[in-house]
Amino acid sequence: MSTELERTVPVTEEAELERLVGDRALSTDDHKNAPAFVVRPDAVQDVLFDLRDEAGFDHLSCVTAQQYEDRYETIYHLKKYDDPTQEVSVVVPTSTDEPVSQTAEPVYRSADWGEREAFDLVGIDYEGHPDPRRILLPETWQGHPLDLSYDQDKPQLVTLAEHANPLQEDHRDAETDTMFLNIGPHHPATHGVLHVKTVLDGETVADVEPDIGYLHRCEEQMCEQGTYRHQIMPYPDRWDYTANMPNEWAYARAAEDLADLEVPDYAQVLRTMGCELSRMAGHFLALGTFALDVFGDFTAIFQYAFRDRELAQDILEDLTGQRMMYNYFRLGGVAWDVPEPREEFFEKTRDFLDGLPTKVEEYDDLLTGNEVFQIRCVDTGILEPEIAKQYGCTGPVARGSGIDYDLRRDDPYGYYPELEWDVVTEDGKDNYSRVLVRMQEVEQSAKIVEQCIDLLEEWPEDDREIQSNVPRTLKPDPGTETYKAVENAKGELGIYIRADGTDTPGRFKIRSPCFHNLSTLAEMSQGEYVPDLVASLGSLDVILGEVDR
Amino acid sequence: MTGPVPLQSDGETYLLPERIADLTGLGEFGIAGESIAALLGAALVGTLMLTMTAVAGPWAKRKITAAFTDRIAVNRIGPFGLFIIVADAVRLISKELIVPENADRPAYDLAPIVVAGSAMLGFAVIPMGSGIQLADPEVGVVYLFAVSGIASIGLVMAGYASANKYSLMGGLRAVAQNVAYEIPLVVTGMSVVIFAGTLQLSEIVAVQAEPLIELGGVALPSWYAFVNPFAFGLFIAANLAEVGRNPFDTPEAPTEIVAGYQTEYSSVYFVLIYLGEFLHIFLGGAIIATLFLGGPAGPGPAALGIVWYIVKIWAVFLLTQWFRSALPRVRIDQLIEIGWKGMLVLSFANLVLTAILVGAIA
Amino acid sequence: MIGLLKSMATTMKHALDGNTFTVEYPETTPDVSPRFRGVHKFSQERCIWCRQCENVCPNDTIQIVTDDQRNGEQYNLHIGQCIYCRLCEEVCPVDAIILTQNFEFTGDTKDDLVYNKEQLKAVPWYKDIDPLESREPDRGSWIGEGEGAVDYQ
């Protein structure tokens, strides 16, 4: 792995940033991960434009909104695609009486959905936002759930009559030749409960609007009610429920940064191995379901992919005791060492890895080498890298558009820096490249797992520490804030935590990669055919559990 | 060697209704008796085909798909799970029949019958061997293609009458697809007619019985699959599109338009449409067998004809399932493009070449 | 065309080799890992009614009722609500609540899945695996010598 990072952007020391923001900054704040500038609500675009164009912060990673006793606050977490370790946060406080703030949407397209979510859950209005609607909750919802004055106990029934009538636009319109079509929420191709409002011109897609929120489970709020030490960790598994373990790392990384916890090297190796196995399982599923979308039936490739996922799950079951909802990580370590007898576990894992090349060959024969598959996927669902960056795309979706961005390498954590592996990118920008990226990432993950096995096998017996010394109750200092991200199977999964002095987080914000990847669907599929829309949706590999949280 | 269908002394084919009439003595009752005999014959053939469909739909398809995907599939009820057929029939028929509020009633109800019925009509002229053939008109091939084309009317009726956008899209796709592939199908079929010099199916079968070449004492019959493999390949591809199977199953396209024209059908209507689909696969198989694989011809006595005929159409069925397991679905625009720009051109080229070849030999 | 043929060859190879990766479930039961987390089993003899499991449970699955002398009266566990995180087993100082390997249980209604302590005691071992013998619950993270206050009391 290359540790040399290309720095094409000017060196942006904190002092330089301060000069750039100048007196538009009311004050500075120190988030644990990055410097933060507090900015007036009407100077948001101004500052963000400068940070993007002058300092090169081209990645709006996350928009966090929260309410304090005396003010609302929006935080824009900025990063660079070239070097995500360079971060800066822009904090925009607004008054409690009139929470209005300038929108960041003209600067970063990804702020569109981000600010809609902030409005929906916290209740900040964004001036100039092109589409100021709720995004996760129904249109008729009363109040904003993460608002301090929100009555949690008041039941809200959204009756069918109050919903927007999906048949409303069904009538014939003499002016247009288009047809409005609801794809989902119950449709074979949406892999969950996603509703895509589609306008068709014949078979051609004229307009697409994903409607999300059907699987909203208040994950952020649940985490705000759990104790740092134990009660939060079971839940990350339920965000991206196909490749679960890397999600745990996102919380672990943020919380360990917040409370300054050390993790023993041995535990880091175990974490790395578990996450890569889980990533393989997730990619197998992504491959299988994508094939399902393109082949059109539960055919061979889907079953073969599931068979291989099963093998990875078996190994993870031996390690963690569960097939999907592992709850394997603990703050400062992991829950279990490798099961006894160790040799048997290593052998089982090695068998799986040894069998992989033949299986990958089989996938090549069945999928990527198949001419019909190629004519279906090549040059469909084009996602230009500039657009991908604007929307905050990460993971295989970004890498399929040629964006060389992988937090495992670029913002190293765990044991990744010590291991030999490559970041896979493809320049095709189409559905086919995204499939290729996933297939090659499976091989890279196998490489990582293999090295981890070797390391674990040789690890001296008296140094197998799986858990560092962590107090039973964690109470980070009030006001400590951090935003940390890891690379899960779908992309950059970030967690923002603000401690409020108790043993539960004051604000817990999840930056979901699928959320941002899904927002590009319209860009990808407009002007293409319905089958391409379905294929593009499959190639984005969105997991609705993570989109809606 | 005479044709697989025993001939009467005057050279006319001895058809199944006549045979029944003679056997039962119904022939003595004039027209009425012959009609009853014809109905009995039709019932016999219909039962045979429906039985095969019943085996194929709930059982064989599952078993075959399972084999391709390394699974076990139905094996609980009866030997090899065969009684699942009964269980499935009961299950499907006892379901509630839900008719959409805005459905266009007579068309909505008729569509399943048209889909299933049109396929049944086709079997009337197929020589199935062992003396089973209901009718043998001189224009058999034309009749065959005509009735199998009726199904697309049923599909568009189903799609339009369901008052569902997905159904409508499925119906439109079905029509576009059938129009695009019917022509290459018929044109390729015509090349066989040029070879055989007749439109009568029993004659086409009889002509194919002549040996093509001798290879070490084994005579290779002049089945048109051997005479013109290119036309055979074309015909199989066009037939796949005609019956709407992978990689050409765009009218249904489960992941795109839910279930296409059959989205709104449930219970008995669904059974009829499902039945119709399988019957169409078998009819496609029967056409392929008759035009290209020597009909019911095969080793052994002529009485075994029906066995060979069943083996051949099941082979075609297996082939469709094999394609289904391995090939992605093409997009609708690609499908039409392949149809009009590829298949049509190739099929006409094949026709012209065949005509020149046959003319030169003559 | 070669790609198509290769695809077809691949699936045909699978069809002909006769291997299946599914099993006939009730007859052939899957092997579960000794660490597998299934239905809970409760031991009243061991339980000291310390309520640590009730406190640590992330979603209030466990409900303990004691009298005013802190003698245990009820131990209810909503198996349908449980997320199988195993924190109750980890926190238990006397191994009174453990997660067996048993994953086969049904209920007609949600209420059927609320197990009281008698039902929890009667949960059978799966394939006679006693989790306590086959695995050693990780207490490391609970018995740390950190400076944090010992709560859960």
From TrEMBL, chain A:
Pfam families: Complex1_30kDa, Complex1_49kDa. The keyword Glycoprotein does not apply. Residues 299-549 form the NADH-quinone oxidoreductase subunit D domain. It is a peripheral membrane protein. Keywords: Cell membrane, Membrane, Multifunctional enzyme, NAD, Transport. One of its GO terms (molecular function) is catalytic activity. PANTHER family: NADH DEHYDROGENASE [UBIQUINONE] IRON-SULFUR PROTEIN 2, MITOCHONDRIAL, NADH-UBIQUINONE OXIDOREDUCTASE 49 KDA SUBUNIT. NDH-1 is composed of 13 different subunits. Subunits NuoB, CD, E, F, and G constitute the peripheral sector of the complex. In the C-terminal section; belongs to the complex I 49 kDa subunit family. This is NADH-quinone oxidoreductase subunit D. The lineage of its organism: Archaea, Methanobacteriati, Methanobacteriota, Stenosarchaea group, Halobacteria.
Automatic annotation (TrEMBL), chain B:
One of its GO terms (molecular function) is NADH dehydrogenase (quinone) (non-electrogenic) activity. One of its GO terms (cellular component) is membrane. It is a multi-pass membrane protein. It comes from the Archaea. This is NADH-quinone oxidoreductase subunit H. Its EC number is 1.6.5.9. It holds the Pfam family NADHdh. It comes from Saliphagus infecundisoli. PANTHER family: NADH DEHYDROGENASE SUBUNIT 1, NADH-UBIQUINONE OXIDOREDUCTASE CHAIN 1. Keywords: Membrane, Oxidoreductase, Transmembrane, Transmembrane helix. It is found in: Membrane. Coiled coil: none annotated. The chain crosses the membrane at residues 36-60, 72-90, 110-129, 141-163, 223-241, 268-294, 306-323, 343-361.
UniProtKB/TrEMBL annotation, chain C:
PANTHER family: FORMATE HYDROGENLYASE SUBUNIT 6-RELATED, NADH DEHYDROGENASE UBIQUINONE IRON-SULFUR PROTEIN 8, MITOCHONDRIAL. The keyword DNA damage does not apply. Keywords: 4Fe-4S, Iron, Iron-sulfur, Metal-binding, Repeat. It comes from Saliphagus infecundisoli. It comes from the Archaea. This is NuoI/complex I 23 kDa subunit family protein. One of its GO terms (molecular function) is oxidoreductase activity. Signal peptide: none annotated. The lineage of its organism: Archaea, Methanobacteriati, Methanobacteriota, Stenosarchaea group, Halobacteria. Transmembrane segments: none annotated. Residues 38-67, 73-102 form the 4Fe-4S ferredoxin-type domain.
